Amino acid sequence: CMTVKERDSYGHSGLATLFLRWARRPNVSVEEANEYLQKAAGVVADGLKVVSERTSLLIVSADIQKELGNKPAQLAKLREAVAGNSASSIGRYLLGRMLRMEGNPKKAIEVLEPVIRTEFKNVSAYIEYTRAMLDTGEPVSKCVATLGQCKLDGESEPAFVGLYGGLLFMDEKYAEAKTLWDRAKGQRFSDE
How far apart, in Å, do the first and last CA atoms of the chain sit? Predict the structure, then answer.
């Protein structure tokens, strides 16, 4: 289904939902649940890069975050994997996002640092890293420079366009912000 219609959100959201449901099975180990949550998050991230109708993927993404927030044991296992340096970039992203949302942006930055140093196409990690930088009071110009490293891939994601454009505007780079927003209009992002 995803191979035939890659730009259709149905296949991506269906597979991500399957992985999420598999992680929620009764009697599943924490390790296996984390593995399937990371797979679900990976499918969502890949889908968000290519689909035009993102609503179903954003709903699955929220469900993944909710699942992690409801299960302290799973967060503990993600923390263990990061501490042991065995976490995937998706695992680091999920943990970094949860840490930032829990009000621990400095720890989020530590968790996400290895990802943004090596994976310039991981827009979601860059967005979370930049949000954590803002939460710690880093200068806007530094946040612009950091987020700008994934600009090539980021311009196809509404969250990137909104954050990066806003930061450019706050940094008084009005022409660059306008150019970014004008190009985004051509992509016909939905209002989600």
Answer: 24
